[in-house]
DNA sequence: ACCTCATAATAGATCGGTCTACATATTAAA
DNA sequence: TTTAATATGTAGACCGATCTATTATGAGGT
């Protein structure tokens, strides 16, 4: 793949991610993706012969990797898992508020929309969440925490839930409340 | 409104709720709603002159009330808030698994899809979540729990997050793990 | 006769997807 | 080094299906 092709492909994925975060799978209409990315329809099906589902799947995976990397960076700058959780809540809260309550979790909306109807997309979402759970579990186990598996899933659920409530209320309050309380969990 | 009209209206709301739980706002196409409910298209616009958004809004509110009532019933049969939370997780887990991982939270998908684009629907979702938070807060305060506000939001976030992960993984595991850990929060 | 409600035909927009034509590189042969 | 052949992308018209919404008409109960 030449450099030009790579650029076009990335512009498509950028636009898809952006639109997905705002309104999920159905919020990322191909017409919108094309308009936002400035690439013609034909290029889309050249780079993603599997059509919309393939492009969305790659976008979700990409969004998941980006968050994963950001969390790993935070993890190195912080003493324990409790402060990591708070730092993640702050980071995601900033991102959410700065985007006008549009950019929450890049996986959640697609997961809820498509988990029941599309096996491939359900698998992608499950895989991304699984990788995040793994990161948290390893970190907790390294801290010598017992029940690391249960706690990792609980922390992830808490963050995802807080993000959902924050979007629904268009307010940081749920994130702040959870941040205050998450310490007792660890 | 006569009895016949009431029935039609309820059949429409039933179908809308069912479809929304499976795939959110966009998963509830009007063609599917009228096919599932057996009512003609025109009746829909007679009972919901505001169109799809009005019908979805009422469905979400209705779904929220149903869950709210179920939780209130559980609350009477249980000693403290910790066991209430576990009971709710079990109830929702049963519902989710029995529906083939389709019926999770009747609000979450619409909230994530529409919170950024539709003010009226965002308000409805915020209102339903607010009422659930209120129920939990009152219950916690009655137990004499300090920080009832923060804890109520945290418990709700935890349940919503666990439900999201369970749908994404098509597995009860996240619900079970959270149920085991939620006690330490209370 | 009046209001409530049911019914179906249809409009107009938008959906994801396919198709063909064209431009630009890259490689191979002369 | 020029030319031919092939691979890589770009570009947009077009398709059938589906979307939400509107309309006109008439049945049914009070």
TrEMBL record, chains A, B:
<protein>
    <submittedName>
        <fullName>TetR family transcriptional regulator</fullName>
    </submittedName>
</protein>
<dbReference type="GO" id="GO:0003677">
    <property type="term" value="F:DNA binding"/>
</dbReference>
<keyword id="KW-0805">Transcription regulation</keyword>
<dbReference type="InterPro" id="IPR009057">
    <property type="entry name" value="Homeodomain-like_sf"/>
</dbReference>
<dbReference type="InterPro" id="IPR054156">
    <property type="entry name" value="YxaF_TetR_C"/>
</dbReference>
<keyword id="KW-0804">Transcription</keyword>
<feature type="DNA-binding region" description="H-T-H motif">
    <location>
        <begin position="29"/>
        <end position="48"/>
    </location>
</feature>
<dbReference type="Pfam" id="PF00440">
    <property type="entry name" value="TetR_N"/>
</dbReference>
<keyword id="KW-0238">DNA-binding</keyword>
<dbReference type="InterPro" id="IPR001647">
    <property type="entry name" value="HTH_TetR"/>
</dbReference>
<feature type="domain" description="HTH tetR-type">
    <location>
        <begin position="6"/>
        <end position="66"/>
    </location>
</feature>
<dbReference type="Pfam" id="PF21993">
    <property type="entry name" value="TetR_C_13_2"/>
</dbReference>
<dbReference type="InterPro" id="IPR036271">
    <property type="entry name" value="Tet_transcr_reg_TetR-rel_C_sf"/>
</dbReference>
């Amino acid at each position: 793949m030449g450099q030009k092709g790579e650029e076009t492909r990335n512009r498509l994925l950028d636009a898809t991610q952006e639109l997905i975060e705002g309104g999920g799978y159905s919020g990322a209409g191909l017409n919108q993706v094309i308009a936002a990315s400035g690439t013609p329809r034909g290029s889309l099906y050249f780079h993603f012969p599997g059509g919309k589902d393939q492009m969305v799947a790659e976008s979700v995976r990409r969004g998941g990797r980006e968050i994963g990397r950001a969390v790993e960076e935070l993890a190195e700058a912080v003493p324990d898992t409790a402060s990591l959780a708070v730092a993640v809540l702050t980071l995601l809260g900033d991102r959410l508020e700065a985007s006008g309550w549009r950019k929450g979790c890049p996986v959640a909306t697609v997961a809820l929309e498509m988990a029941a109807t599309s096996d491939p997309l359900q698998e992608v979402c499950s895989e991304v969440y699984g990788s995040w759970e793994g990161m948290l579990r390893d970190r907790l186990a390294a801290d010598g925490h017992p029940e690391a598996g249960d706690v990792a899933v609980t922390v992830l659920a808490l963050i995802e839930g807080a993000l959902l409530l924050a979007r629904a209320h268009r307010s940081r309050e749920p994130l702040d409340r959870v941040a205050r309380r998450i310490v007792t969990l660890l």
